[in-house]
Design a protein that fits this description.
alpha+beta, Beta-lactamase, elongated, five-stranded antiparallel β-sheet, 3 domains, 17 helices, 594 residues, Penicillin-binding protein 2a (Domain 2)
């Protein structure tokens, strides 16, 4: 801008020539200059106001449009994400066969400290102990006043604990976002679910990894984003599982047992509807594995899958079924039961004297060791081993639990004739209750092998045939006789015909070999309804003692059988089985034509 002089020489000379005051010229020029400056400033201010108005209207329109989009979209829970962390924390739910939640996720926080940023370290330590009584105040003070710049205080805290820590008001206490695994049913199905823990972690996030059970077996699938968070559906029924655990716990206490296990299996699909191992634990607060002592004494030990026991007389039905399959006997074949049966320096005896001979059906009903051993001698070692292998008793079960991989049945190093005889009545071969359930299911479903599974199935398994349907049905009837006329008389359940076999095996010593005189594993392997089996139930008690009589009683007929009967009475209605009258046996009448 070109400025006009305040006192132009030409104007001053002209004013002097005409007698005017030259100062008036200067004042007029000053006024005009100020007016030009004011107009320029006003124009610049109006431009700035216009630009601000445009920006404000643009921002208002953007926010309004976004609000409209959000209000019109489907409601969903917002999730916090951190671009600074590459940890995949999400994990799919686990549900039962009805879709009920067994394991899910919960948003929570972790608490960590940065001591250099703390204002009053001793006060912080003192107040943290008030919020978390399990912390050690002296240890906290030592950590806060030392050289450490970072330390974890708690990996998981509740909203109430977070607020209490926030109220301490120290800038050295910080929170990190966490997604923790929650088991809303507490101890229910603990050994099946297994539990979880934190894997890779930083202050912003932590990955949740499975440490046992199906959580570890399906860890990659549960964490795979490609699955779209689809829930893992198990075969167990939450209601049946709860009833089974309650009854088994009560039975374990009444029978003064050290531990207990049960397996309920669908004989056609192989699905595990309920599986219990006691004592158990809460997977929300999974204890650490023991570093000493017997692992089977730990609450983490899954007795149904990992427990390898000599299951006693429950094996006798296998010898009877194979003998019928091979044509060596039929239900009314007379078997020599005179004893004791001597083989070298070993003697095989019965629990009581049953006479010199009995039918094959009575051998099973009365549980004769001598009669079963003589049947096994007819079968032979090679054929016995092949038959038991076909039932799945010689290899780990393929169930989808990591614990099953190490459950290799304990076989005799030399499968001799003596081994053949002792194995026929459940001694000399150790397997798990789950093995036994799968073997009984093969008998109950008409003679085909069935593999146990913990995953929900909608179709029957069509496994290889291990015996004819005729042999399987004859075995059902024998097992029914065990309840109506034999050692499992306490197993009768009104409205639900039960068949099964008791087994009482002396418990081997942990060291030095041999067996305890007063410790047993009592087992009842049952199937129901006995005239058309749909389910197999195995109940096993570790060191039971029934003390209501004048002398302690440890046999399965007095311990495991009543517990199994009570369990069947509770769960059968939950399984949709209606009480019914057992079909009567038809009279021996032969129809002839004229």
């Amino acid at each position: 801008m070109i400025r006009t002089p305040l006192r132009p020489l030409a104007s001053v000379l002209r004013a002097r020539a005409t007698g005017q005051n030259p100062d008036a010229i200067e004042r007029e020029n000053i006024r005009q200059r100020h007016e030009e400056m004011r107009n320029h400033s006003r124009a610049r201010a109006e431009g700035r106001l216009f630009i601000m108005a445009v920006l404000f209207l643009g921002g208002f329109a953007t926010i309004g449009a976004r609000m409209g989009i959000v209000s019109a979209s489907e409601a969903m829970e917002p999730r916090v994400s951190y671009s600074v962390s590459n940890i995949q924390a999400q994990r799919a739910d686990i549900v039962d066969r009805q879709g009920r939640i067994l394991a899910t996720n919960l948003e929570t926080h972790a608490l960590y400290a940065q001591p250099p940023h703390m204002i009053d370290r001793e006060r912080v330590a003192r107040e943290l102990v008030e919020v978390f009584p399990d912390l050690d105040e002296e240890r906290l003070i030592k950590d806060f006043t030392g050289k450490r710049k970072f330390l974890w205080i708690k990996k998981k805290i509740s909203p109430e604990q977070k607020q209490a820590v926030h109220d301490i008001g120290d800038p050295g206490l910080l929170f990190g976002s966490r997604e923790m695994r929650l088991y809303p049913n507490g101890k229910l199905a603990a050994h099946i679910l297994g539990g979880s823990s934190f894997g890779k972690e930083d202050v912003h996030a932590a990955e949740v990894i499975g440490v046992a059970g199906v959580e570890k077996q399906f860890d990659e699938a549960l964490r795979d984003p490609a699955n779209g968070g689809k829930a893992l559906a198990l075969s167990i029924d939450l209601t049946v599982q709860a009833a089974s655990e309650r009854v088994l716990y009560g039975g374990m206490k009444l029978m003064n047992a050290k531990g207990a296990s049960s397996v309920l299996m669908d004989v056609h699909t192989g699905e595990i509807v309920a599986m219990v191992s006691l004592p158990d634990f809460d997977p929300n607060d999974r204890p650490r594995p023991p570093t000493e002592g017997n692992p089977s004494d730990s609450v983490l030990f899954n007795r149904s899958v990992q427990g390898l026991y000599e299951l006693g007389s429950t094996f006798k039905i296998f010898a009877a079924a194979q003998a019928m399959e091979l044509g060596l006997a039929h239900p009314e074949t007379m078997v020599d039961t005179s004893g004791p049966l001597t083989w070298g320096k070993f003697r095989i005896r019965d629990f009581r004297n049953y006479g010199s001979e009995m039918t094959l059906t009575k051998v099973i009903a009365k549980s004769s060791n001598i009669g079963t051993a003589r049947i096994a001698q007819l079968i032979g070692a090679k054929r016995q081993r092949e038959f038991l292998d076909g039932l799945g008793l010689l290899e780990p079960t393929p169930i989808e639990l990591v614990e099953a991989r190490g459950s290799q049945p304990l076989l005799p190093p030399n499968w001799s004739e003596l081994s053949t005889m002792t194995i026929s009545y459940g001694h000399g071969l150790s397997s798990s209750p789950l093995h036994l359930a799968a073997a009984y299911a093969a008998i109950a479903n008409g003679g085909t092998q069935v593999l146990p599974t913990i995953l929900k199935r909608d179709t029957r398994q069509e496994g290889p045939r291990v015996m004819s349907e005729k042999s399987a049905q004859a075995s059902w009837k024998m097992l029914r006789k065990v309840v109506t006329e034999g050692s499992a008389s306490f197993g009768e359940v009104p409205g639900y015909a039960v068949g099964g076999k008791t087994g009482t095996a002396d418990k081997p010593k942990e060291r030095g070999g041999g067996y305890y005189d007063d410790k047993v594993i009592a087992t009842f392997a049952s199937l129901f309804p006995a005239h058309d089996p749909k389910y197999v139930l195995i109940v096993s008690l570790d060191e039971p003692v029934e003390t209501t009589g004048p002398e302690p009683r440890r046999t399965a007929g007095w311990t495991a059988v009543p517990v199994a009967a009570e369990m069947i009475a509770r769960i059968a209605p939950l399984l949709g089985l209606r009480p019914e009258v057992e079909p009567a046996l038809m009279a021996d009448i032969t129809l002839t034509s004229n």
